[in-house]
Design brief:
Blueprint (H helix, E strand, L loop, with lengths): L1 E2 L5 E5 L4 E5 L11 E7 L7 E6 L3 H15 L3 H30 L8 H11 L4 H11 L6 H12 L9 E4 L6 H9 L7 E4 L18 E5 L9 H10 L1 E9 L5 E9 L2 E7 L6 H5 L2 E4 L4 H15 L5 H17 L4 E3 L15 H18 L7 E2 L6 E4 L2 H19 L4 H16 L4 E3 H8 L3 H13 L3 E7 L3 E6 L4 H24 L2
Parallel strand pairs: 6-11, 6-12, 7-8, 8-11, 13-15
Antiparallel strand pairs: 1-2, 2-3, 3-4, 4-5, 9-10, 14-15, 16-18, 17-18
């Protein structure tokens, strides 16, 4: 028998010979079995060391004669021993290859009957979205009630043919990556790919269908700039192809097409919204809550966790139920019979893409509630589908209003946050004018960031200079205090009136 106790020094001992295979065996190049062996008679010190391909008959025959001559043993015994060793090594190599393939195979959890029943019962429950949001909170995601639910539904859309994407935006250290990673923990491990740093061509070397319906998580977009282009192509075209030159075993040069199929759902984090505009246009922009109230919630959770007063077993159970709910969701087509009557506010920038996102988000909610929908079949094709309800649209409107507001804003997220803080300060202190120095001290804003915000606000004609000069500094005033509120009311009014018209038309 082959002794494989030491993987770098296999042992094989018979009545006549003691053999050691030094360095183990290689698992590639199955057409050969090249090994380095040391052979001697038991309890003797005359050792013969040799490198040989045991599949090469000429080499084996020469080696047989050398063994017989050097160790003074019959050629028939040497030949038989080498043949038996070859068979043992061959069988062991096949076992190692099977084991390696098993380890590299993606883990897919098989739900027990109880787990499956529990997950389906949850997905059939009334007020599913609010119960889901509550469970997300119980799993350890603190605050961010709006963002976490939107993100979870976006991640769920990876199972559809038109997945959604999101980018989390906020200042450094406010918890963008933490929110994304915590919500991503609610997605089954086998359905996601996490990326920190990746080379420019790495995406093209995944297996053709390896990324299909996967969630791709990018910890920081700054560390993955080289793969943003293929990612955008995967988002838009749902496949990427690269042509490379390859030499075959005969040395012939051939052109090979590397194709990776989607669709995929992509999520990333960044502090620099303007730099990744091409990616932002394809994604929902989720602005992290940087308020004092959110700070208080997180710090209180940290204190309770440190004091051992957080029931982590309950957190795990909540997360596991949501993961299992994801596992029982099955691919099915969604048809929205109300789609042609839905409208977007005229203030929205890039309305074509935003309109597509709006419809896809409604479909994602319907898809998540598939166990509450009657299965229908196309009379011509026999294809199975479920239909969107007015309730789905109402819930989508409640979640997407903030996204539409951001898409309608002339300011980016960081500048808008600065402007709202500035207006709040002036209102509380009954002031009509301000200086840069005063605001910098009060709001504790980085000077370079403040300069950029002020230029953007002046360009948008939301503030203006009233007096002063370049040497002594300028005094500013706010031109419009209710631009954001008016836009929000317009969006809210349009969504509400559209919903009311749908209810009238359907007789609800």
């Amino acid at each position: 028998m082959l002794d494989i106790t030491n993987p770098n020094n296999y042992g094989y001992t018979t009545k006549h010979l003691e053999i050691h295979v030094l360095g183990g065996i290689k698992l590639n190049k199955l057409e050969s079995l090249r090994v380095t062996v040391s052979i001697q008679k038991p309890k003797q010190h005359n050792v013969l060391r040799h490198s040989i391909d045991l599949y090469n008959d000429n080499q084996v025959e020469k080696f047989t004669r050398k063994i017989a001559e050097r160790l003074e043993i019959g050629t028939s015994i040497a030949r038989k021993t080498l043949q038996e060793l070859t068979k043992e090594l061959e069988n062991h190599r096949f076992l190692l290859i099977e084991k390696e393939a098993e380890l590299s195979r993606p883990y897919i959890k098989e739900l027990s009957a109880t787990e499956e029943k529990q997950a389906i019962t949850f997905l059939k429950s009334k007020d599913l979205l609010s119960k889901t949001n509550k469970l997300i909170g119980q799993s350890g995601v603190i605050g961010e009630e709006h963002n976490r639910q939107t993100m979870y539904l976006i991640f769920t859309s990876r199972k559809t043919n038109n997945p959604l994407h999101c980018i989390s935006l906020g200042s450094s250290g406010v918890g963008k990556t933490h929110l994304q990673s915590k919500v991503a923990e609610l997605i089954p491990e086998e359905d996601k790919v996490e990326i920190t740093v990746l080379s420019a061509n790495a995406f093209y070397y995944f297996n053709r269908t390896e990324l299909q319906h996967k969630l791709i998580l990018i910890e920081d977009l700054d560390g993955a700039e080289s793969v943003l282009y293929p990612l955008r192509e995967l988002q838009s075209k749902k496949r990427i192809t690269k042509t490379v030159v390859h030499k075959d075993t005969k040395g012939t040069t051939k052109t090979v097409h590397l194709t990776v199929e989607g669709p995929v759902s992509v999520a990333g984090c960044t502090t620099q919204e303007s730099i990744y505009e091409d990616n932002s246009n394809r994604s929902f922009l989720l602005y992290i809550d940087e308020s004092e109230q959110q700070d208080s919630k997180i710090m209180q959770y940290q204190r309770l966790l440190s004091a051992g007063k957080i029931n982590q077993d309950e957190e795990f159970k909540a997360a596991e139920l949501l993961r299992n709910a994801q596992r029982v969701l099955k691919p099915i087509k969604v048809i929205n019979p109300f789609a042609e009557h839905l409208q977007l506010p005229k203030s929205v920038f890039k309305p074509r893409r935003t309109n597509s996102h709006y419809l896809q988000f409604i479909e994602a909610i319907t898809f998540y509630k598939q166990y509450q929908r009657e299965r229908q079949y196309n009379e011509e094709t026999g294809e199975e589908f479920i239909e969107t309800t007015i309730e789905d649209i109402q819930e989508a409107n409640g979640l997407i209003q903030e996204v539409l507001l951001r898409k309608s804003d002339v300011l980016n997220g960081a500048c808008r946050q600065f402007f709202e803080m500035l207006k709040g300060y002036l209102k509380v202190n009954a002031l009509t004018t301000f200086t840069n120095a005063e605001i910098r001290r009060t709001l504790r804003v980085n000077p370079s960031n403040q300069k950029r915000y002020m230029l953007q606000l002046q360009s948008a004609e939301l503030i203006q200079k009233t007096k002063g000069n370049k040497r002594k500094g300028y005094v500013y005033e706010v031109v419009s205090y209710d631009d954001y509120e008016n836009t929000n009311k317009q969006i809210e009014s349009l969504l509400k009136s559209t919903l009311e018209n749908l209810e009238v038309q359907s007789g609800s």
